[in-house]
User: What shape does this take?
Amino acid sequence: MTESWVNSAERIGADLHLELSGPGGRRAALIRALRDAVRSGRLAPGTRLPPYRSLAADLGVARNTVADAYAELVAEGWLTARQGSGTRVADRTESLRHAERVRRKAPPRARAPRHDLRQGTPDASAFPRAAWLASYRRAVQQAPNEVFGPGDPAGRRELRDALTEYLARARGVRTEPGRIVICSGFAHALRLLFGGGVLRGPVAVEAYGLAFHRELLRTAGARTVPLPLDDDGARVDRLARERAVLLTPAHQFPTGGPLHAERRTAVVDWARARGGVVLEDDYDGEFRYDRKPVGAVQGLDPERVIHIGSVSKSLSPALRLGWMVLPERYVGAVLEAKGEREAWASVLDQLSLADFIACGSYDRHVRRMRQRYRSRRDRLVAALAERAPHVAVTGVAAGLHAVLRLPPGTERSAVKAAARQGVALDGLAEFRHPETDMPAADGLVVGYATPSEHAYGAALEALCRAVPSPN
Assistant: This one.
């Protein structure tokens, strides 16, 4: 016979399921059940158990049965009993000793770096919690009932309306709500476009870029063809038989710099002539410092450019919110690839972002972070000018990272030296397309957005100690 008990939260603060089974009567079954709960970790050290009377009433047994079971487990060291504190799970039990033995046998875990200067993430401590919470509350309070049902795969109309206005004003994007599809970020957009069969064939990509994106395309069956880079951006004159090209025209990742105006026009002309499409990754287009805003390539021809953006750099990657601004001919195919229901981006987060944009909080946050990141960039440049003047710092007119150009043959040793100083960062070689014929260059990709304000100074000090000395 098996009996189960689930205690109420008001008794010990959490639900607990016990099964009384096996030989020896209810006292023995209760001892086994409690011992198993402690051993498995369902009852953590320090957890207070319910009083005899409460547990006995829930189980339908005599109070003496519970009292005897508790006393036995106290004697065995599984529980402790103190006047005024009740009966609790002992701090030192066999389960804990077993866990300690396992921990000692396990290989040592890699320690988290003291200073995180990896590219790609904003300052998490700067997330606008109060403003976001206000938008979230308004969004939930004002949401119609149908919001809490299955979601539209295109995304909430409120967010698509807000993005239509914002992208036109801030990025020069020409669109309408019906041509925007909400996704969970840039990688999700690529999966929908290529994994969903919307786009096919080889894709031209910049010779330096994220290997993760290249691997994603390869997994979807799309071969990537590298385009060389120079001071004016990607060499779009090298485009050949490809039907799609992936670019970061506002701020080339990771080398920095915008795509020159003539090349913007040239790549749109290529798309028109070939019946192709330009994939515009606008990953940090809001953050520019020493130059006028660079508008989106999509504004040159909305029918030949897919503009893809997200809040992963401007707000937080934890939100998992992005968007595709699509040529009209692709909208139906993308929605079909996405499915009948929204399964990726939280509808409540979509409504919150719509309010966050509409009430002006998004613009205020971007302006505040633009000033903060510019100050950090200036501190990075100044520190290197003083401590390592032989190292050129490039790609700093916009974005959240800089490239430190190193003497030939020193990149690998510099990355190791940084690790010894507790600094996590990437070498430029990590982003180089394996099939490019573009000459390799040594460098460090330094993200200056990730550390919190109070930790940034120490991170710069450690970085300067890792930079190689001049030959």
